[in-house]
Amino acid sequence: MARLHVLVIAALLAAACGSAPERVGAPSASWLPSPNFDDRRPVFVILHHTSNGTAEQALAVLRDPAREVSAHYLVGRDGRVYQLVDERKRAWHAGASRWGDDVDVNSSSIGIELDNDGAEPFADVQIAALLQLLADLQARYKIPRANFLAHGDVAPTRKVDPSKYFPWKTLADHGFGLWCDAPPSEAPSGFDTTLALQALGYDVSDLRAAVAAFGRHYLATDDEGPELSEPDKAVLACLVEQSRRPAP
After folding, report:
1. 113 catalytic, yes or no?
2. Which strands make up the sheet holding 73-75, listed edge to edge?
C-alpha cells in the first residue's frame, strides 16, 4: 500500500497567522473555564469527487476564499492525502443536505474529496489510501458502518458525486458503508419504495432524485427513476434490513 502522506495545510496556515485566541465568547463575561467539554465529534463521512482534472486544481478551489467551499481531506489520484481543515472544525463540503433527521450534515461529518473528474474509474492507489484514511477515522470516532455516504446521497437534488464508477462494494468489504451481496429474489409483499428509501436515510421530497441517488450508490447506474425494478427493490429491502442490525 502506498505510504499515506498527510499535509496539514490548515495547521500551517494557523501557525503563520499567530496564536489562536484563548476563547470566543461575550467580551463582557468573566472567563471561568470548565474542564467539562469536548470537541465536535463527527458521526458521518461524506465522500465527493472533485470534478477537476488535477489535485492542484482542486486544492486551488478548496482554498479559495471566494469559492466558500472546503473539505477536511483531499485524496489525489496518486494516493497522496492532503488535509485542509482541522477535523474538529466544520468544513463547507455538503451544503444544503439531509440524511434522516440530520439537516446540517456539515456540522456532523468529515468531508473527503477524491481527485476525479466524475467520468473515470478511481485509481487503485487512490482507493488504497482512502481505505487507510477511513480506517483511521472510524477507529478514532467510532463512526457507524452505515454512515459512510456519498454527497449525492445527502443532497440528491443537487449532487451526483462520487459517480457511478466509485467502488462502494470495495469500501463495504472493508467495513465502510452498507452493501448487499446476496439480496432476496424479491422484496417483501407490500414493499413501499418511498418508505424504504426514507428509512435508509434519503430525503424523499423529490422521489425521482432519491431513486437516482440510490441507484448510483448501490446499483452503479445513472437511471433517473422514478421507479425501481423488482430486483432493485429487493436490494433496497436488503439494505434497510442491514441498517437495522445492531453494530457488531
Report:
1. yes
2. 6-8, 81-83, 73-75, 109-114, 44-49, 148-150
